[in-house]
Specification:
Layout (H helix, E strand, L loop, with lengths): L12 H10 L4 E5 L5 E5 H17 L7 E5 L4 H12 L3 E4 L6 H11 L1 E6 L4 H7 L8 E4 L14 E3 H6 L15 E6 L9 E5 H14 L9 E4 L6 H4 L1 H8 L2 E4 L6 H11 L3 E4 L1 H14 L8 E4 L6 H9 L3 E7 L6 E4 L11 H9 L3 E2 L3 E6 L14 E7 L10 H7 L6 E9 L5 E6 L4 E3 L2 E3 L1 H9 L4 E11 L3 E10 L7 H11 L8 E4 L13 H7 L5
Parallel strand pairs: 1-11, 3-4, 3-5, 4-8, 5-6, 6-7, 10-11, 10-12, 12-13, 13-14, 24-25
Antiparallel strand pairs: 1-2, 8-9, 14-15, 15-16, 17-18, 18-19, 19-20, 21-22, 23-24
Helix pairs in contact: 1-2, 1-9, 2-3, 7-9, 10-11
Bound molecules: adenosine-5'-diphosphate (ADP).
The site of adenosine-5'-diphosphate has 23 residues, from β14, β19 and β20.
Length: about 550
Amino acid sequence: MKGMMMHRPLRIADILTFGEEAHRDAEIISVTVEGGIHRTTYGKTAVRVRKMANALQNLGVKLGDRIATLAWNGYRHFELYYAISGIGAVCHTINPRLSAEQMVYIINHAEDSVICVDLTFVPILESLKDQIPAEMKFIIMTDQDHMPDTSLKHVLCYEELLKACDSNIEWPEFPEETASSLCYTSGTTGNPKGSLYTHRSTVLHSLTAGISFPETMRAGVRILPVVPLFHVNAWGLAYVAPLVGASIIFPGPHLDGKSIFDLMDSENVFSAWGVPTVWLGLLGEINNRGRIPKGFGEVIIGGSAVPRSMVESFENLDVSVCHAWGMTEMSPIGTNGRLSPIHARLPMSEKIDLKVKQGRRVYGVELKIVDDSGNRVPHDGVSNGELYVRGNMIISDYYNNPEATSAAMDSEGWFGTGDVATLDSNGFLTITDRAKDLIKSGGEWISSIDVENMAMSHEHVSNCAVIAIPDPKWDERPLLIVVPKPEQEPDPKSILAHLAKNLAKWQVPDDVVFVESLPLTATGKVSKLTLRKEYGETN
Ligand code: ADP
């Protein structure tokens, strides 16, 4: 028997309309590219979004057209998220840290017809203009006074477009499976692959994220997404915040520890979201100043494994850490590390044992771990295997890339994450490694994450990475690459002795290399591919 309830398609535009009506005065505060801070509210933003939607339609943008953005975290980028998807076009966020070659590839692969660009990135597009369609339109995300001299053709000014339009719009109706936005992976191997989200998947992800982080996701809380709007929708924050009435503080182009500290301090940020490398910078600044930013209470860390020493540092400062795992292909949140009331009585060190794990699945994401023969492994916290996922917020296909799709999906329609993991009987996921980062030494697997975690707890180690290097006897051996703490005379023997105390003998790297900094991927993670190339691995 069919139920008798209305069917209204889930649409992104309705999120902001809700924010406008229910959380009108919650704020959007942005560090701008032009300089200074911009303040607005959901109420005022919704009006500008409707004007921009009209402007895009006046430019001829239609349902399904791909409209790209190349921009920092700021209020105009936020407006474009809603204006583009609201009229049924697809918001293709371009990661400015991709190589020129990758950027050209994705602009052409997506068949973008308009690119909305922050002033900072105009020179990048100028250098690529001969490799992308000549009829491409560019909307420069600034006002008339700041319009640059540029060699780009078909250039429009964002604020002038807004001025010319009114804010009346009837958001179009379309099926909820309509494509809403497009994000390419950073493509560490081969060309980037596109995840094409739908209105339905985005709204469901927003509802899930809203209930998965209840300390943050509520009216009045001030959130800092250091995670970029240009990659995986800033982990969905631009959609969740208007639903729950949280205020957003956008950091713009300034992402170093000092700038982040100052912004958090002056804007009273409670909850900050980003990858571990960002928090190393902030912890350095906290250390220099001897205090945390005013109002800081929670940090959500994901994108790569959070080292235990980082969890300890924040928790010792009374900043609660929540570790989260996910992927571009998953919208992206898959798990989160919130503890249950039952864990409240645990001693701190046991709480930290749990917080270092990747956490438990969020609603809407199913997890399975299989061995090499495709059989599910027991949830005993020890049995390892490849992690597969299934759910309404996970891609069914890569955008226009059947080869990548068939390589990723199993015969039951689950998506293979490429991560190796364990699940314990309480549902806590531990990512042992990315399959390609595991080290196979004398037939035994070594988790680079385990060795890195241990090395990070040495007092002279500021950051580190462990990679496989070829070895004639053992096939592969781990190599430890360390960024020492400032003003420390690094001593390889002391670091290796520290590892030997805590790891099995064969897991201890034979050597340590000291470097000033580690190479990062386009999404701000340590680039092991670059390190492997540099230190002699062949694949
Ligand atoms: P990229 O484009 O950099 O691959 P993604 O965000 O899609 O961006 O990367 C997803 C991958 O990042 C996961 O498959 C996993 O290997 C890694 N990852 C994400 N979060 C975590 C985490 N909390 N712990 C360990 N690895 C993580």
